[in-house]
Amino acid sequence: MILHEVLRLYPPIVMLARHTDKADASGKVTIPAGVQLMLPVLLLHHDVETWGPDAKEFNPERFAQGVSGATKGQLTYLPFRPKKLEKFLRQQGSHGNSYKLFHGDLTEMKAATREAMSIPINFSNDIFPRASPFYHKALQKYEIMSKNYVFPKPHGRPVKRLIARGLASLEADKWSKHRKLINPAFHVDKLKHMVPSFYLSCGDMLSKWDEIVGNEGCCEVDVLPHLQTMTSDVISRTAFGSSCEEGRKISRLQSEQTKRTVGEDRSIHIPGYSRAQYGGDDAKEFKPERFGDIGVAKGAYFPFGWGPRICIGKNFAMLEAKMAIAMIVQRYSFQLSPAYSHAPPTISIAFVALIYLWKFLDWVWFTPKKLEKILRQQGFKGNSYKLYYGDFKEIGRITGEALSKPMEFTNDIQPRATSIYHQATKKYGENNFIWFGPRPAVSITDPEIIREIFSKNNVYLKPSGNPVARMFKGLATYEKEKWAKHRKLINPAFHVEKLKHMVPAFHASTVEMLNKWDAIVPDGGSCEVDVWPHLQTMTSDVISRTAFGSSYEEGTEIFQLQRKQVELIIEAGRHMPVPGWLPTKNNRKMKEVVAEVESRVLRIINKRMKAMEAGEPSSDDLLGILLESNAKEIKEHGNASGMTMEDVMEECKVFYFAGQETSASMLVWTMILLSKHEDWQARARDEVLQVFGKRKPEYQELNHLKVMNMILNECLRVYSPPTTLTRFTHNEANFGKYRIPAGVQLVLPVLAVHHDKQLWGDDATSFKPERFAEGVSKATQGQPKFIPFGSGPRVCIGQNFAMLEVKMAMVLILQNYSFKLSPSYSHAPHALITLQPQFGAHLILTKL
Ligand code: HEM
């Protein structure tokens, strides 16, 4: 009874907010979409009509028969599509101030709040004027509670940004699903086991009081911080159990974040640049005790909210409060000190704190633990989840050890290049999972399942949120309709007919590289050259020429910047993942580079658009073809089915990212393997000289090189540029006998499949181009065991481009040079987005 009465008079959440997504005409008044509805909890709790003339008196007896508040809640409208909504609300008979540009009523709200907060009030339970000063003023001015409105700033954005993924902020199906899954954690049976934690935390607090008060003494204590510490301690113990120390640290961080969030919420919101200007003392504190439990409540009594979204932790909170009060009254009596000032705070800090804490706990603990349980039930094995870090430390150690030194020259490169997965398979068998921070990654080794995952591209999506996906939007990262639209518009650029026109660019770029080699290597002599940087420059040059053609010089500068971007992404990958919005040094640098790249690409595109409008013929480069295909689509099906200029820009960036390192990787391992296997180098050269002599190869001829095809396919198999590909389960996924829950990363281990002895025979890691003597389909016998370009609808769009490019380069190299491994070559395959030679590719080049 006492607790309910306290919650009624001093509800921790004085105001609840809802937002109308659609217009609602079901009530007395039609409420348009886009209105924020404020549910004034405190005011309704103090309403004389509902609670009688003694509404503001402390009278626990009203709860003698349980909770049965029975008045109807009324609403105050807070629109935020300003002028239109103002007009509408006035038509409906509501009153309020005229909308003031951008600030709305914010200045007045802040002044009222500051004024109210400046002094305490006499001890009275009539706290509405102090606790909700602005709404109180609005009510006084416009009288009828249900017929007034105020203009706050666009509310909720800072909070929403911070709590975007937690139960409290989810909607519709996603909310029901999460609520259903989380409900058991708050079931009475589970809460029973938390009672010892309540007892211990409260015991700690009372021990501190004993120290302060002494035996049989009497002492003034500001109990508020103690109670706060105690409840935060309860959360640490109950949420994190054995990891409660880390939990405490998190709680402290949460309090700090809460302070910032609330501070930001009170300031004027300038998108992306908000500044906390104002914060009450209490804003710093995390106060779960505000969320007590009322059991069943109706109408005007809803400290925990009401309806399906009623606070999920209400039973927890009531139990906790009961335990604390019981232990305190057992040991202490207490009364107000003369120093006590009655100053109930005005805003619902606790509400923000709770949802924020919930989101964090859900992300860092409940979801990983739930996923772990389900994966283990399915027979997957892996390390136990470690709070926040998961396997991150172990991954760092394993990778560090693997990369610390080169290896013997063998093609059995998995222990070095994909050490984490290799170790996990050794320790836990094929069905294993690894924790990348709080998210598990499951390795899928069955080729049939891999094929299924590739083919269902609308079910298994690419993981989002990693630095690569953040930096490079575009075909390679889009999903569903957007991906389908872009794929359709970009496909023509990679059509065989168009590729033909790119062959001269492949030739020019290789010739430029060979000119550099000619300058290094003496005529008729040999010289050691690290060919790796040369090949990288060459493939980057190819993309500059083929993507931007006439604007090649500008393209080259852009791609140099993108190379920097890749370095920053790689650097980010060495540390625990951090959200992109955090202003870390790396994130800031990335943003700068991205902005520079984008403005330069847009400049080229604009130039091309103007040329097209002036009737100049379109170019045969990727950009020209893309713009042409886009213009055609827009002409036939309207603007909506085409790409915007930003879209085109993103795609140009993706060409570089997807096409440069991959081709360079393929080329470098081909040269290294042909250096090791000089017999195959000789066979390849024989074929080249037989077909072309020393002349420039033509497009059609490149397609008919048999030995070259065998060699290139075998190189792609043994040293596949992507060593792993990844997908993500956004919904529960069923394949084979497995049921993989949503939120799991699926690792498709390309290299492991290519080296699998069951699939390729005991000599799986031997370099044997003759496997491909009769083409890829004969070598694979229809099994999905050769996947250097992926498979299914999202198979590499540039695979023909890459094969042509690499063939052209190899033909010219073989025509002009023979090569072998230098004694200073160190074999060190390293998966850095693509498979790369960690210490370079030092070869002895001999001019022919
Ligand atoms: C040897 C060279 C290359 C290799 C090994 C390679 C490999 C791959 C792989 C494995 C995928 C599928 C990724 C996944 O399913 O998650 C892919 C996609 C893609 N590749 Fe390549 N690639 C190469 C060259 C290129 C080139 C030269 C370009 C363009 C100039 C390119 C553009 C793309 C694009 C745009 C995608 C995304 C396709 C989509 O999602 O629809 N690739 N590549």
TrEMBL record:
CDD domains recorded: CYP72 (cd20642)
Topology relative to the membrane: Single-pass membrane protein
UniProt cross-references to InterPro entries, sorted A to Z: Cyt_P450, Cyt_P450_CS, Cyt_P450_E_grp-I, Cyt_P450_sf, Cytochrome_P450_Monooxygen
Gene Ontology molecular-function annotations: heme binding; iron ion binding; oxidoreductase activity, acting on paired donors, with incorporation or reduction of molecular oxygen, reduced flavin or flavoprotein as one donor, and incorporation of one atom of oxygen
Cofactor annotation: heme
Organism: Salvia splendens (Scarlet sage)
Protein family membership: Belongs to the cytochrome P450 family.
Protein name: Cytochrome P450
Main location: membrane
Keywords from the UniProt entry: Heme, Iron, Membrane, Metal-binding, Monooxygenase, Oxidoreductase, Transmembrane, Transmembrane helix
Positions that bind heme: C796
An annotated GO cellular component: membrane
Keyword Iron annotated: yes
Subcellular compartments: Membrane
PROSITE patterns on file: CYTOCHROME_P450
Any Gene Ontology biological process: alkaloid metabolic process
